[in-house]
Structures are given as C-alpha cells and as structure tokens.
Design goal:
Blueprint: H1 3-31, H2 34-62, H3 66-70, E1 73-80, E2 87-88, H4 90-103, E3 113-124, E4 127-140, E5 145-161, E6 164-174
Parallel strand pairs: 1-6
Antiparallel strand pairs: 1-2, 3-4, 4-5, 5-6
Length: 182
C-alpha cells in the first residue's frame, strides 16, 4: 500500500475512532446527566438522614425523651439484643428502653451519653441496611473525666416511611465488655 493510501486509511481509522469516542462520550454524558446526578444526590441525602437517625437514637435516650425515641421506629419494628427475647412494635420498644434506662439497675452516675460511630450504610430505594458501632459513657468521678460502660455493634434494617427514615429492625451485639465465655 502506498504511503498516500496508508495516510488516508490512518485518517479514516482515526476519524472512525474519534467518532466512536464522541458517540461513547455523549452516551456517558447522557447517562451521567441530571437524572443520574439527582439519584446520586438522593443517595447522599438518604445516608445523611440515616446518620441523623443514629444520632437521634442516642440523643433521645440521653434526654429521656422516650416518646421521641419511639417515633424513630416503624410501627412494626423489631428490636433485638437487649435482655430477653426480641421486642416487636414501637410501643414495646419504647417501653423496654424507658424501663432499662430509668431503672438504672447498676446505679451508674449521670449524666450519661450514647455515641455512635463508624457507620456503613447501603441505600436501595426506600430500604437500607447499615452497620455501626456505639458506646455508652458515664462520668468518671475518680479521674474527673468519662468512661465507657459498654461498647456495641449495631446491625440495622431501615425503611423510608412518609419521607423519613425509620428503624425497621435494630440488632445489638455486645462488644466490650466481652460476653462471658460459654
């Protein structure tokens, strides 16, 4: 093939590749257009609202606002990991935590604080799953500071109901102190 024909073939090939690149790029730009950006933004907003739900879980307990605490759960939610069998339903979950916290069977000093951290959240439409860690702190009068009473891991199933994220199921697993050996 002559060098002139080679150059023409190379230009044609380059033109085809450039055209193909433009076609692929325009397809990608359409895919990443406003709808995709809106979907990504919604996922970020959902994650942020779920993190706020985790914060509200501890804050409502710290304030002893058990009515607000109960509203963090779906009507038929399941709460597992406390003493005894899992508890089902918003009123039962609210009652369980109110009894546990107000009775203070270990006679722990107040004020106490619930913390959450290390969330991992996967959103799928109006449902989500999440794992996170939690700790319960009380005053340490000896050192004039705070000490961790317990450390837990949470496994959550969440649902969006009337535009807000709620716990559908919350499983709590002991961390520190470690459960007794069997």
């Amino acid at each position: 093939m002559s060098s002139h024909k080679s150059r023409i073939a190379a230009w044609c090939a380059a033109g085809i590749m450039a055209g193909l690149g433009v076609a692929l790029a325009s397809r990608f730009v359409r895919a990443a257009g406003p709808e995709s950006a809106a979907t990504r933004l919604q996922r970020v907003e959902d994650r942020q609202e779920i993190e706020e739900l985790f914060t509200a879980y501890g804050a409502t307990l710290d304030r002893r606002d058990f009515d607000a605490f109960g509203r963090l759960f779906a009507a038929d939610a399941l709460y597992a990991g406390g003493p005894g069998e899992p508890v089902k339903g918003r009123p039962a979950i609210q009652s369980l935590l109110e009894k546990q916290i107000t009775s203070n069977p270990s006679h722990l000093p107040t004020p106490d604080f619930h913390l959450f951290f290390n969330p991992s959240i996967q959103v799928d439409g109006d449902q989500a799953t999440a794992t996170s860690k939690g700790a319960y702190l009380i005053p340490d009068v000896t050192n004039n500071g705070a000490r961790i009473v317990f450390f837990v891991s949470y496994e959550d199933k969440l649902i969006r109901h009337d535009g807000h994220w709620l716990f559908a199921r919350r499983d709590i697993h002991s961390g520190i102190p470690a459960p007794p050996a069997k």
